[in-house]
Design a protein that fits this description.
Rossmann fold; binds S-adenosylmethionine; single chain; alpha/beta
């Protein structure tokens, strides 16, 4: 990558930062699609969680990322900011959300456009449990995943199991809402049965906890009846 391209990415990252700062400061926004007013937090990730997410994208040198639950796009903006700081292949972020046009009046896509990163993000208006197995059969792979979609146990469990196969071996799955029993239990299955490790978690008294999981670096060699209670 030439120095001109690095400068372009830096200036793009600054534009993303300015949109994040405006949204965090205002806390609400008007949807261009239908004029509805949206209160962004606590539906969207907090600035602190977003910064932790951006740091992990940087630390991992990720250039291909995936997110379950675009929502207001605050997590996606932080991922994009991290991606723009990583030099290498052209960065790409895939964001799933079946309710973007309805519940969110396309606000997430609007903010990505305002931040100048709409072309970097591929939004799919699909449920993750339908899209992820298809991505697997299409041979897609990612360096890092962020999970903030369907928070029921079966929803998070399916997301983690499929992302475990879509994210590179020893890659990062950053999980939101770790304080919820459903999320914690689904993560516990991966930690106790799949050889994943817990890399970082926000404070236990954080009302909106998050955790960073690393998938197993080796192949899955469990016998067919392997089971550890979780
Ligand atoms: C808490 S919001 C995400 C907020 C987002 N991380 C942000 O920072 O703005 C949860 C999102 O998950 C989406 N969602 C719910 N079920 C889903 C599913 N099965 N697959 C993908 N997304 C889903 C919802 O439409 C919603 O946008």
């Amino acid at each position: 990558m030439g120095s001109g391209q690095i400068d372009d990415q830096r200036s793009s990252a600054r534009r993303v930062r300015s949109v994040i700062e405006r949204l965090v400061r205002d806390g609400n926004a008007v949807a261009r699609s239908d004029g509805t007013v949206h209160s962004l937090f606590p539906v969207a990730v907090s600035a602190a969680e977003g910064e932790a997410l951006r740091e992990w994208v940087s630390l991992e040198g990720a250039t291909r990322t995936i997110e379950i639950g675009l929502g207001y796009g605050i997590s996606a903006l932080h991922v994009c900011e991290g991606l723009l700081g990583n030099v290498g292949q052209t960065p790409r972020h895939v964001a799933l959300d079946p309710h973007q046009a309805t519940r969110f009046a396309n606000c997430g896509l609007q903010f990505l456009e305002e931040a100048g990163v709409a072309e970097l993000v591929e939004h799919r208006a699909e449920e993750s449990q339908i899209a992820l197995p298809r991505f697997l059969s299409e041979g897609k792979s990612f360096h890092l995943a962020f999970v903030d979609g369907n928070h029921r146990f079966d929803g998070v469990f399916l997301d983690l199991v499929f992302l475990g196969r879509l994210v590179r071996a020893g890659g990062i799955v950053f999980v939101d809402d770790y304080h919820l029993p459903s999320t914690r239990r689904a993560a516990s299955f991966c930690l106790k049965n799949l050889g994943w490790t817990l890399e970082e978690a926000s404070a236990v008294d954080d009302p909106h906890q998050w955790a960073v999981l690393r998938t197993s670096a080796g192949p899955d060699t469990r016998p067919f009846d392997y089971y550890v209670d979780f």
